[in-house]
Structures are given as C-alpha cells and as structure tokens.
Amino acid sequence: MRSPQVVRDPSLPAEVTIWEVGPRDGLQNESRVVPLAVKVELVSRLVATGLPVVEATSFVHPAWVPQLADADELIDRLAADGLLAGGTPLPVLVPNERGLDRALRAGVTHVAVFLSATETFARRNLNCGLDEQYTMADPVVTRAKAAGLHVRAYLSMCFGDPWEGDVPVEQVAAAGRRLLAMGADQLSLGDTIGVGTVGHVTALLRTLAAGGTGPEQLAMHFHDTYGQALANTVAAMRAGVTTFDASAGGLGGCPFAQSATGNLASEDLVWMLDGLGVRTGVDLGALVATSDWFAGQLGRPSPSRVVQALAD
Questions:
Q1: Of 15, 66, 111, 299, which is most buried by a Cβ count within 10 Å?
Q2: Which tens digit of pLDDT belongs to each residue from 53-67?
Q3: CA–CA distance from 240 to each of 169, 217, 221 (Å)?
C-alpha cells in the first residue's frame, strides 16, 4: 500500500491522539439502523488498528437517536469480548443523569457530555436554554468524577450556527471555560457545520489561551463540509493542540443540524499526519480496510478520499 513521503515539520507536535468517534457520532446520523453484530465488529476492528480511543455509543433515549437504541447491548457485548476492560478507552456519551446511571452500571471508564455554545442549538438539541444546559450537566460531571470516570465535554457550534450565524469567539471561550471549571477533564471544540477556517481556529485558541485555557486541555472536532478540516487541524496543531476527533470513513454529521455533514475522515487525517512525521500509532492500512468493509455494510462508497485511493 502506498504511503506518503515523510517531511517532518519541527513546529508541529511529535505525536497526536486521534479520538475516533465513528461508532457514535458517525452512526447516529445514519438513515437506517446498523445491526448490533456489525457495530460490535466495527468497534473491535477499529481498536485493532491502533486507534488510542474509540467512542463506542451514546446512552441517549432511543426516541431521540434510534440508531443507538442498542447501546446497552453493545456495551455488554464489548465487555463479554474483553474490549471494555482492554487498554483502549471506549467512551460513551451521557446526555443526562439517567444516561450516566446506565454508564455506571455498564462499567465504562470514560464518559462525555454534550453542550452548545449557542442558545438556539441548545434549545433544539437539548430542549433547554444556554444557561439551563449547565444546570443539567453539572450533576453528571460531578457524579462521574466522584466515581473515578474520565469526563470529556463536547461543545458544539463553536465556529458558526445555522440559525444564529456567526458565533463570537469570546462567547465560545466563556462556555468552554465554564465546562472546564465544572470539572471536565477535556474540552472538545466542535465545528458542527464545518464553516471554520484557519484564521478563525487560531483566533479562538488564542482567546482561550488568554483566559488561561491551554491547548493541553483541548481537543478539536472538525467537520469537512467546506473542505477545511485538514487545514484547520494543522492550525490547531501549530497552537499546541494534540487531540483530534475523527470518524472512520468520514461517517456522520449531526442529526439535529441538517447543514452538518461530513466528519473529518480518520484515514485522511492519518495520511496527513503520517506525511508530517507526526506519530499516531494507527495502522493506516488496517483502518482503510475497516472503513472499506463498513462502507460495504452500508451499501455505499466511503466519502474518505484516502479510502477511495487506497482500498482494494
């Protein structure tokens, strides 16, 4: 299999963490439900590629995301296969305390909460206002931390909102600081509709740093709607960020924001990082094979350019 020629850029981090979100963020946007056995195999295969984190599912009410209604069964199967107690974290999204209760019963070690940087999306996605969402999330984070869990906070609409338009960087920074002050271990900044650009990314990270939030506390979650995800990733790396969310085969978007399409494909990210000499620990060939296999399960080609170029 062809590999990129390596040209190391010493201004970039030597190593980054790819936080794989395909089984959760990717599948929640599918028009049909993927069989449980296929999900189990997908998670298993992704872990085997060397991805350091594979977000498995969401303990959300099935009425909201029917594609993930089998979350409890999935975690049980992964536990039975030894994956839940393995060396690769398999985080789950917990939208509220009921979701956290399910996560605690299941024995997961990493959970994530999901909030919005804008009022409109908070009401559309979480059915509560911008300030109310923190009241809902606070006991989830507090209880999870007390139980010894690692807590990630997703913040959506950080670079633009389809209903509100531009989102001021200070508004995003203030929301992020509030989540970290709540006790979250990591803050993932989401470009939910993929409108961010290099200058915008740089400005947001500078604003966060000026307020005391350093890149070691952050992850970036880029969508490739306008083809900017890889450029934005390099900009964030230059600012010191070393954790990036991506989805195998470019699966997913957001079911609650119709203009949100195209998570950054994990393969496209690994190809670029390999070419830059940035370590990820991921076997690109195994990852391409996994996404190519899963595209066959879905009955359509993978949107990842690297999968298209390298798959047999």
A1: 111
A2: 999 999 999 888 999
A3: 18, 10, 15
